[in-house]
Amino acid sequence: MFCLSELEDTVRVHPSxxxxxxxxxxxxxxxxxxxxxxxSIGLCVSIYDIKSVQGGFVLPGDGAPTYKVRxxxxxxxxxxxxxxxxxxxxxxxNGLRLTLGFFEDVYVPAPLIPxxxxxxxxxxxxxxxxxxxxxxxDEFIIDDSxxxxxxxxxxxxPPVPIxxxxxxxxxxxxVVTGTIDDDGLGPVSWWEACAPISDNDEx
Amino acid sequence: MKxxxxxxxxxxxxxxxxxxxxxxxxxxxxxxxxxxxVSGSEYKVYDYLMETAASTQTRETVTKFFDKxxxxxxxxxxILNVINLRPTSDVELTPIIxxxxxxxxxxxxxxxxxxxLLPPLPSLEAPKENEQExxxxxxxxxxxxxxxxxxxxxxxx
Lengths: 203, 157
Description:
Order of helices and strands of chain A: EHEEEEEEEEEEEEH
Radius of gyration of chain B: 19 Å
Shape of chain B: globular
Strand content of chain A: over 45%
Main location (chain A): nucleus
Pfam families (chain A): RNA_pol_Rbc25 (PF08292), SHS2_Rpb7-N (PF03876)
Keywords (chain A): DNA-directed RNA polymerase, Nucleus, Transcription
Number of domains of chain A: 2
CATH architecture of the domain at 57-117 in chain B: Up-down Bundle
Structural class of chain A: mainly beta
Oligomer: heterodimer
Distance between the termini of chain B: 62 Å
InterPro entries (chain A): NA-bd_OB-fold, RNA_pol_III_Rbc25, RNA_pol_Rpb7-like_N_sf, Rpb7-like, Rpb7-like_N
Domain RNA polymerase III subunit Rpc25 (chain A): 82-191
Number of helices of chain B: 8
């Protein structure tokens, strides 16, 4: 889910921060610049460490020194084929939306929900649709009762839109598309009936 | 815009390693969250990770598991998945491992190894154990500090 990435950037440290040790001042600037932002490599979660700092020159007309910093960050970038446990957020006629707490744009489109299934208006929540999987004689509901495991199919970084409709969803710079159409995927409660490996008899 | 990325992938991290990093900065479960070294968005990642298998793992168990996994001919990405998810049954392992029969992968062996080496998943509710944290430092964690305080406890072997 996470990996390290090495970056190099020029960082301008405001003079008011120069009272603290240089490394801390640079880390504060880096945090403001990168934390919780989506780069082309993924969502930046944390600054890992600083590898080297060079420069410190003050450009003419400026009061602050500028450093060339090489550092590493922890990036959230799941790989295709990774299985991740997430929570249910909402669903509509296009599919499901799951959330990881720190990342909320995981979508499971309708074709990737196990078939045969049907979509019905949610009796508990008038604005939402509810997905139900029909397997044999049993029906399994997809809701927020437990964690939902999904497998990553694709990650896309849609370009920033220039114009949008007033009521469109907030722009998501990184979208993870997942599937729950396989053994062991989907709500965890669906598979709890399968006995874990042990010496006891299966129920 | 200049390209600032030197190396897009300088190494994959298990959930445990990220949790360890946040812990070393001082993230904790207390709700005041007054720590200025860990920001709000990092705390969201921390909350997520504390509910996964990573919260009960230690560096030794993860390294040991990784070493032993080499005998099972798994791809690195699959080992990462197994460490992060800690599967307990065949059906949980199926979406992780591709074509196990063609590659002759010993599914039961992997599950047995998981059971043996990786600590069990955290229980989502532990109200009574939290009350004891005032006197002893969290019986769930195995740190050296806790061992120093428990000098009078009989060796239960």
